[in-house]
Amino acid sequence: ILINDGLLQLAQSEAQVAAVIAHEMAHVMMKHPQRQKQIRLASKAGGKMMDGITPTRLQDNIGRFLRLSGNATMNGMIRQQEMMADSIAIDMLVKSGYDPRALVQVLRTLRGTTPQKDRLTNVVFGNHPLTIDREKAAVEKINAQYQAVAGTASTQRFDVLVKPYHAKRQKRLAQSN
């Protein structure tokens, strides 16, 4: 699991960093990368088989259709995996003593910094659910299962460690204005 500089610049609390790490750990625990790789390999093999049995003049059109439908199917699976990883991350945050609402805060930050596609475009081409849908699902789970939970948001040690990253972000924001 890699954490980039940008995450630490955007994170406002230790719990938010923990939320992102928990989300990525959930992908690893559920073997999502391996499943995606298996499906890509099977799709590639299927494409080669189709090339072998399809007349040359139809290969291009059928190939385009199969790539589009295969990508849409793969993207749909990845969207489901993202929602699952968010749900597992909430459970992990609670078990680790962090406030589960930190995931919602991260999603709100992402929604504010990332352009959102329209729903139809996202269904066909997007490999992540719309952030607003992820946020809504996270809020619903927290309200249903963890409404009374109020874990740690941040520790003093973390605040000291992340201070240089926040200073870097402030400097970058000042330069862009």
Map the helices and strands:
Layout: H1 5-10, H2 14-29, H3 32-53, H4 56-95, H5 101-113, H6 119-125, H7 131-145, H8 156-176
Helix pairs in contact: 2-4, 2-5, 3-4, 4-7, 5-7
Task: Please name the defining characteristics of this protein.
globular, mainly alpha, 79% helix, single chain, 177 residues
From the N-terminal CA to the C-terminal CA, the straight-line distance is 33 Å
Helix fraction, binned, reads: over 70%
The total count of strands amounts to: 0
Q: Give the structural class.
A: mainly alpha
Query: What count of helical segments does DSSP give?
Result: 8
Report the β-strand fraction as a percent range. Answer: under 5%
Radius of gyration, in angstroms, nearest whole number: 20 Å
Morphology: globular
Question: Averaged pLDDT, please?
Answer: 80
Give a short account of the largest sheet. Answer: none
The stretches of 5 or more residues where confidence is low (pLDDT under 50) are none
SSE order: HHHHHHHH
